[in-house]
Amino acid sequence: MLSRVAERVYWMARYVERAENTARMVRAFSLLALDMPKSAQLSWRGLVSVTGHDAEFEAHYQREDERNCVKFLLADADNPGAVLSSLRKARENVRTTRDLVPSEAWEVMNELFLFARDHIDQGITKRGRFEFLSEVIERCQMLTGLLAGSMSHDAAYDFIRLGRNLERADMTTRQVDVGALRLLKREDDETARPYEGLLWTSILRSEGGFQMYRLHVKRRINGPDVVRFLLQDTAFPRAVAHALTEVQAALERLPRNEMPLRLVTQARRHALNADIDELIGEDTLHEFLETLQQDVAELHGANVRTWFQFPENAPAPDVA
């Protein structure tokens, strides 16, 4: 398996996961907007901050209203993390590695991109947004399930698994970070307190974790427990600890894995050993999450240096 091929399947998985996570986030926030009273001021701009593309947004938009933020997150060609941009790049990566993935995977990916491209205007409007985003999410899940159930779990699949779970861990830390900054500091605000449950529920729904939280935590929804669940629950697939465990399992099957494996072990230990109550009490949760995001970024960098980079004009090395 060539290095450039491994890189393409790795990024295909990251782009599909990125598109799904962004669609989940926008859908959950749109539902929250329906549940909140009109007097409540919701910040759509906060969703842009989750993705880390504030500079691109500020360069092209003057107003931080709902339509501009949703358009930026779903359809803006200048946003490399937009749903449509991510699906376009995922489609190209699948197209160029069609000999490695099941033929049905290419069909699902192609149809997913064409659907998103042809119906993106529906996603921007309030009336059609829920149906559009739900369709995108379901088709992304279809592709993920098809690869898990129909593709040989060889080195190519390990790179898919690696990319998907690394992207998932990164997005979860970002959502928890922005949510915690917006919500935990408002616990003493009497005007905001009645809506804290709705706001944390929205974050759980962004991660598809509302029902699993209710099933396993068995307490009313509150900030510290939601943060703990999304960071440290080893059984929930979108929790950071679980995603990093999957990354570690994929890395253990790949050659020349010493540095990435050391970094993922460190990141997983940071996530599991954190005292959430102490971090919240000392108002250092944001700094901790930034450190965790840096761990994920360093792990990605190690992946690139280990398997994807090679001297210009030199033949790409085998990675498996």
From TrEMBL:
Cross-referenced InterPro entries, in alphabetical order? ATP-dep_Glu-Cys_Ligase-2, DUF403
Q: Give the top-rank taxon of the lineage listed in the UniProt record for this protein.
A: Bacteria
Name all DUF403 domain ranges. Answer: 1-308
Q: Tell me where the signal peptide lies.
A: none
Which Pfam families does UniProt cross-reference here? Alpha-E
Write down what this protein is called.
Answer: DUF403 domain-containing protein
Q: Which organism is it from?
A: Thioalkalivibrio halophilus
